[in-house]
Amino acid sequence: MKNLPAIIMRSAILLSGLAPRSSLGQDMLPELNMWRPNNHVYCIDVDSANNVAYIGGLFTSLTDPDPPFNTVARNRVAAIDLTTGEPLPWNPNPDNTVFRIAHTTAAVYIAGEFYNAGGQPRTGLAAVNKTSGSALPWDPGLGVGPVRAMTIAAGKLFVGGHFTQVAGTYRPHAAAFDLSTGNLTGWNPEPSDIVLAFQAMGNTMYMGGYFTTLAGGLPSPFLAGVDMEYGTTPSYVAAPNAVVRALATTNGRLYLGGDFTEVDGEPRSNAAALLGGSLTGWLPQPNATVNALVGIGGQVVIGGNFITVGGQAYISRLVVVDGVTGTATAWNPGVNGGITTVAARGGRILAGGVFSTAMQFDQGNFVSFTPAPQLVRVQPKVFLQGCYMSTQLNMHDSLRRASLVPATEPYTALGYSYTPGGAAGSIPSTVMANASNTAVVDWVVVELRDAVNPALIVASKRGVLLRDGSVMDVNRLSPLWIAVAPGNYRVAVRHRNHLGAMTASPVALSSTNTIIDFTASGFTAYGTNALNTIGARKVLWPGDANFDGQVMYSGSSNDRDVVLQAIGGVNPTSTVTGYLGSDINLNGVVSYTGANNDRDIILQTIGGVVPTATRVQQLP
Fold first, then answer.
1. What is the model's pTM?
2. pLDDT tens column, 173-193
3. How far apart are the two ends of the chain, measured CA to CA in Å?
4. pLDDT at position 23
5. Is 371 helix (H, G, I), strand (E, B) or coil?
6. pLDDT value at residue 6
7. In this model, does residue 430 exceed pLDDT 90?
8. In the chain, what are the domain boundaries?
9. For a Cys staple, 231 with which of 83, 115, 187, 533, CB 3.0–4.6 Å?
10. Between 2.60.120, 2.40.50, 1.10.357, 2.40.10, what CATH number should domain 140-228 receive?
11. Contact, 515 vs 491, CB < 8 A?
């Protein structure tokens, strides 16, 4: 189990490095510890009392985001511990798609197009134990046709979908059960077609879907409001001109999303809001289908298939907008695929659908965003002499081109101990495939050290080094954020076969990104001769093949022998390929003699004359 501080530190920074704001006025960052479903997530229901998210959909397994990337089987439903991000043992194992989930203190209700759930025959609707997932005795006897909508209100379980009968009783497309007895109630609005969404407001249950009439042929195209006792007393609602797929409420307004282009004859693309049943001026204007809505105070979260809202391109299918005007906030979660469901509980925004990244971090089909803790943003810039190309003022990326850079940081295996959460995160395959001037070169470690006592490491975090020297987060686009209070810190950068370096003086860090250019000719490093100079740029000294903080050519624990041992220790003309500390020039090939060999770099670093000389890393 992962501890809370580590999980908080796993949240990721935003693409621009400038903090968009949530409804609470804080950064909303994805929790990278959440296990990832392998397919579509259709629904999310959060049990805040137990800090659990129930998810349902088409998936058949969940995968740990951290090495060794363990996988557990979970067919179409799972319960995720929101503290650890890990799946719980709960496993109803339905045999087909789950579209909706709802819970009470006593049970979890799942709905969809399955025929068995919790180890018992259950058609489209089941109540299961909250711990084990085994079926409870209640069997609603639902007729043929999947359930597509479900909610709990006024002591009842409301369901909607394709069915027309429940327990032999005529209930076309909508029905309600008494939660205390499990019995079918008299609620029977008789929509003419499929119900996709419910939203309770006061004594009214609003429905959205494909229907055009209610009982007796009363016109109510795609949206209706009826009483929750019998469903026969309609409330006035302005009529959309096409399917309503999602409903939500906040601040007394009813929000609807779907495929429509007009409401009450007025232009409204895919999203609208009603007050007292009448159309309001709320105008977010997503440019494609809205599948999901949820209200948060004075704001509304919208999910769907759109990539622009209010004329502004988000390259995301998830957005937060003002609940009165529809104006989008600056927050850009960067979800790269369709959103089918959203939820908001305890400061979190959770989303499910079919996507692979959020803010360019691996987040398969399910993501949870949380307000960030206190943090600083920092973007060091360093060059590694071993792969530095002075004519181009950048570094080569031979390791990446040879597919040798590991997806996860290598320093833990070398014996380095991060502060909690500092090692978490992996490089997405899309990032590793980038071949630009900001392509991945290798992993580094960034340390924040105490301003007064620089030997004290306050926080450490893995970073990805790019060809232009920038040290970024694993998405290649964001500076590093580190969960410490804003203040003054000495900043150090370390590499697995180069000597690390640190700022000579403390640097003021805050939530606004700070670039620290170790490569600048005027940069002053801690210690004596901590950096080498090539032309107008400073570089980290190469040759620390055994990552012990010093470069040695001879004597006990020298680095030259590491190169010789890597090629076999016998034939000095041999070579070996791999991601190795002995590959000082980072070209993917370890060689002891000949052109571009790694041994000579070690000799040059210590001075090139006296083989017994050493060069020591200038870190306390």
1. 0.76
2. 999 999 999 999 999 999 999
3. 34
4. 41
5. strand
6. 31
7. no
8. 1-6+27-134+335-368, 140-228, 236-332, 376-540, 550-616
9. 187
10. 2.40.10
11. no
